[in-house]
Amino acid sequence: MVAGFGVELENVWVQFDSFVAVRNANVRIEPGEFFSFLGPSGCGKTTILRTISGFLEPSRGVVRIGGRDMAGIGPNRRPTALIFQNLALFPLMRVWENIAFALEVRGAGVAERRRRAEQLLELIALPGQGDKLVHELSGGQKQRVAIARALCAEPQVLLLDEPLSALDLKLRQHMRTELRAIQRQVGLTFVYITHDQGEALAMSDHVAVMREGVIEQIADGRTLYDDPATTFVASFVGENNAFPGRVTAEADGMAVIETAVGHLRARIATAARGQLAPGDRAMVFVRPEALAVAGPGVLPGEGRIAGRVTAEEFDGPSYHLFLEGPGGTPIKTSLVNHGIGRSSSIGATLTLAFDPMKAVALPAGELAQEE
Amino acid sequence: MKPLAWTRQFVERNGWPLAAYIVLAVSFWVLVLIVLPQLVMVDFSLRFDLPPAKQGGPEDVWTLANYRYFLFGPPGDPLGWNYVDLAVFARTLIAAVFVTLFDLAICYPIAYYLAQAASVRAARMLAVALVIPYWVNEILRAFAFRIIFGTGGLINTLLLTIGLVDQPIDFIRANVALYAGLSYAYVLLMVFPIYNAIESLDRNQIEAARDLGAPWWRIHWRVVIPFAKPGITSGCTMVFMLAAGALAAPQILGGPSSLWFTQIIYRTFFESVNWPRGAAYAVILLVVCTLLVLLVMRLFKVRLGEVGR
User: Could you list the residue ranges that cross the membrane (chain B) (predicted)?
Assistant: First the structure.
């Protein structure tokens, strides 16, 4: 099966008047992979997608698709197909006409268009629905029709601009699995844009995390979550407790940082090796699920944080406790629900413990200065 | 919904003073200003042209004579058909269709540009530039066109100077001035309905079509024009109706040998002082134009309700 084309961005800058939307992006997307750009709104991820699809030309730098420089090639002549955030299905055409539009453009006859549309309808599990009008479909069905319409153009790279954001939670989770299945089946390169880190982690082979036009880290989901390269990645991807402070000691890839909640030992993130020396401002990140209620005896090397419980949240599989540590530091911990009747602990003082290998130390960037 | 329940809800929603005002104003508008005068005209058209003394007398009965006259001319006319009036009528309709198509051709791109391509600032400037010329009144505008298109006018002077022609072209006799003047007069009525329709088109639709490989003409043919169809119909209807019913522009800009059907109606009323026949001709113009519009709407599968969008 064809594995689609790879996409390369080399020193790409996109500038609108005085506003820099994308700053020196360098990305290498392998053929056939599911690649996501993740970031808050306004971080430049949609601009990158529009640059790959050809609706925007980079102010500087090179976009290559399948090894070919795309400069001066319009969106209608690139081997990409874009799925819009609002899908942009043609409301006045029937479903099959929508799907086969790319063939119509190439001058294919009605019979061929219908045949191909029907094939694609089978692929997206909507056989025989070609004669319906777009507004007669449900949200999830429209989603799939948009994918079929894009696939009909036989692109090498499929670009998806937050296509699931309009769906409700259940359907969104279902469509994640389905999108991934379709990607495996057609074997194309998928480039996916989202602000939802759950979506990005669940579907992607690799994720680029963006902030204010800059790509902060490109990695697979596990690495992003467990070994973030910047304080922004650490706090944007998943939930995290952040403790700013100063390095007091550093050895063997571990650092001790003096924070408001005490001296915390943590593993120095891979990207920050050699960047933390005693006296530097740093941040320790501890995931809520890495914090547990401390046992009676202190384990060797174990980190400890004490705080008063101010709120509790129960969501079925886990309890989330919100604590206030020394100096008003907010702390969150997630405890597994073991199913035994458990009384509220609001108001109680708890000591939490964590494994320093599961805590990450990073140089305090702009994040610490803001606080 | 039942009319009674609807009325109650309408009054509750708007409060009775506003509800009463709306009902009164709309009924006055529809009945007194539209339906009644037309009915009077129809009544006129169905009567003989009698001197005042005989009006209301035994001879004052309903008749189709005026309509007959339009088709066949005076009774016993050897020609069989009223060629003069029929020809003017046909020519008027064809010319109105031509003016409509011409307006559509120049206004669709303007409307598209205004609605989708232009920046907010540029769109506003262009809209103002389109509207301001209409502050000049119609007669003045028509005379200005006469001056521009006259044998000694701006265009001919220009053509003679650059040596493109050696004799001035009589644009007025060739009706070029008339068609240009009429087209110009209704540009706004074509631009704004189409603009309204295209403005609500999701830009992503255009980009999606482009992304799927469509060249610009196919994007218009398959995406923009179908979407703008109600606006296009609305614009075309207005321009056609008004062009077919125009009087001032043909009077001022029409060539000496050409007549607009409205001029025949005008002369019948005020020169021949034959109100019944004038009324019949006016009714014919109205009915035929309306039927034509409905026919075209049917052909292009536009429903009447959509035009009002």
Answer: 18-40, 88-111, 142-164, 176-195, 279-300
Taking a contact as any Cβ pair under 8 Å apart, which residues of chain B between 221 and 260 contact chain A? Answer: 222-223, 226-227
Q: Which domains does chain A have, with CATH numbers?
A: 7-226 (3.40.50.300), 239-363 (2.40.50.140)
Q: Where are the domains of chain B?
A: 1-45, 77-307
For B9-27, the pLDDT digits (tens) are: 888 888 888 988 999 999 9
Integer CA distances (angstroms), B150 to B113, B174, B272, B297, in order: 33, 11, 31, 38
Q: Which of B202, B204, B214 sits opposite A76 (nearest CB)?
A: B214
- Residue position matching structure tokens 């003017």: B88
Q: Look up the ipTM and state it.
A: 0.80
- Distances in Å between the alpha carbon of A17 and those of A21, A45, A138, B300? 10, 18, 41, 45
Q: Are strands A34-38 and A189-194 parallel, antiparallel or unpaired?
A: parallel
According to the model, what pLDDT value does residue A371 have? 38
Prediction pTM value: 0.80
A74 vs B contacts (CB less than 8 Å): 210
How many residues can be counted in chain A?
Answer: 371
Q: Read out DSSP for chain B?
A: --HHHHHHHHHHHH-HHHHHHHHHHHHIIIIIIIIHHHHHHHHHHTB----GGGTTSTT--B-SHHHHHHHH-STT-TTSS-HHHHHHHHHHHHHHHHHHHHHHHHHHHHHHIIIIIS-HHHHHHHHHHHHGGGGS-HHHHHHHHHHHHSTTSHHHHHHHHTTS-SS---TTTTTHHHHHHHHHHTHHHHHHHHHHHHHTS-HHHHHHHHHTT--HHHHIIIIIHHHHHHHHHHHHHHHHHHHHT--HHHHHHS-TT---HHHHHHHHHHTS--HHHHHHHHHHHHHHHHHHHHHHHHHTT--HHHHT-
Nearest-CA neighbor of A24 among A75, A60, A74? A60
Homologous superfamily (CATH) of B77-307 is: MetI-like (1.10.3720.10)
Helix axes B154-161, B138-149, angle to 10 degrees: 20
Under 8 Å between Cβ of A301 and A325: no
The winner for highest mean pLDDT among A252-256, A339-343, B71-75 is A252-256
Mean pLDDT across the stretch B46-56? 82
> What does the block give as tokens for B124?
């506003």
Q: State whether residue A75 sits within 8 Å of chain B by CB.
A: yes
Nearest-angstrom CA–CA distance, A177 and B299: 47
pLDDT average, residue stretch B247-273: 87
